[in-house]
UniProtKB/TrEMBL annotation:
Keyword set, alphabetical order: DNA-binding, Transcription, Transcription regulation
Pfam families from the UniProt entry: HTH_1, LysR_substrate
Gene: cysL_2
Domain HTH lysR-type: start-end pairs: 1-59
Protein's UniProt name: HTH-type transcriptional regulator CysL
PROSITE patterns assigned: HTH_LYSR
Organism: Methylomusa anaerophila
GO molecular function terms listed in the Swiss-Prot or TrEMBL record: DNA-binding transcription factor activity; transcription cis-regulatory region binding
Superkingdom per UniProt: Bacteria
Length: 308
């Protein structure tokens, strides 16, 4: 016997007031209604109804079962509605892994636009350096990722946005800096840790000037852009960082861009996903993400972030 079916029959008998009315409501025969009620009473070893010529009334046991059955029925209906929403992609939980710049500058405006038309969806962003996010993505910890380091070919990342890295310094450090590659070797550096996409791209750029990592005077290694920016502001050293991360400080003159001659450091951000995307809302967000990237005709963060 299906308890769910039997409880539905029980609930209908109570609300309709008789076996015959319940049979009509459920489009079942009266013997079928009696069969389900008899089986319920046998399974619980107690009577639920007092049968009279005018219909039925509940026993003390029946009142308790009716109270519980209403709760169960409401929960089933709520669950059915939630599942329908998940199937339609209008509700659910989306988990995204993102390196620092995407989590701070790419995802917030895109998520804000997406949630306007999808208010029942919840988005969680797990942030870290590019290598940490790539490793977690490969281990299946989340279905979507955006990183600033080119993933291995097997992960098939889509290049969607670009960002400019600059070498920033406190104005005091800029004095006397002639902006040539040899001057770089004289400066104290604050660097992101080795698994960072920022550091990887910066080292590639320096290699084009025949500067090897071991030649730099690295005085501090740090986990995040915000921590690197704070260290530079406190004159610990100079550091490579996304231009977007220091937009306000450049405008106010708290930091300066030590432009390296004939060197513009541009890096690519890659979006990755595991197929098939589940739940449906994750696929909806992925498609929305791609549409937002295609609208950004410059291929930069210019349409997503403030400009000077």
């Amino acid at each position: 016997m299906s308890y769910l079916q039997a409880l539905t029959v029980f609930l209908t008998v109570v609300e309709e007031g008789s076996f015959s009315a319940a049979a009509k409501k459920l489009d079942l025969t009266q013997p079928t209604i009696s069969f389900h009620i008899d089986n319920l009473e046998k399974n619980f070893s107690c009577p639920f109804f007092i049968r009279t010529s005018k219909g039925v009334s509940l026993t003390l046991y029946g009142e308790k079962l009716y109270e519980s059955t209403r709760t169960i029925n409401n929960l089933v209906q709520k669950t059915q509605n939630q599942i329908k929403s998940l199937i339609a992609g209008t509700a659910g939980h989306i988990i995204i892994g993102a390196s620092t710049i995407p989590s701070n500058y790419i995802l917030p405006p895109i998520a804000a636009k997406f949630l306007i038309s999808n208010p029942a969806i919840r988005i969680s962003v797990r942030s870290g350096d590019s290598q940490t996010i790539l490793s977690a993505f490969e281990n299946g910890e989340f279905p979507l990722a955006i990183v600033g380091k080119k993933p291995q070919e097997k992960l098939a990342g889509l290049p969607l946005w670009t960002d400019e890295l600059i070498l920033v310094a406190h104005p005091d450090f800029a004095r006397g800096f002639c902006r040539n590659s040899l001057d770089l070797l004289k400066l104290p550096f604050v660097m992101r840790k080795e698994s960072s996409g920022t550091r990887s791209v910066a080292m590639e750029a320096l290699a084009s000037h025949d500067i090897r990592p071991e030649q730099l005077k690295v005085v501090m290694e740090i986990d995040s852009n915000e921590a690197l920016k704070a260290a530079v502001l406190h004159k610990v050293g100079v550091g490579f960082i996304s231009k977007w991360a220091v937009h306000d400080e450049l405008v106010t003159g708290k930091l300066v861009d030590l432009a390296i001659p004939e060197q513009k450091i541009v890096r690519q951000f890659y979006a990755l996903c595991h197929q098939p995307l589940q739940p449906v809302c994750t696929e909806s967000f992925w498609n929305f993400l791609l549409s937002q990237a295609s609208e950004d005709t410059l291929g930069t963060l210019g349409t997503l972030c403030p400009t000077s």
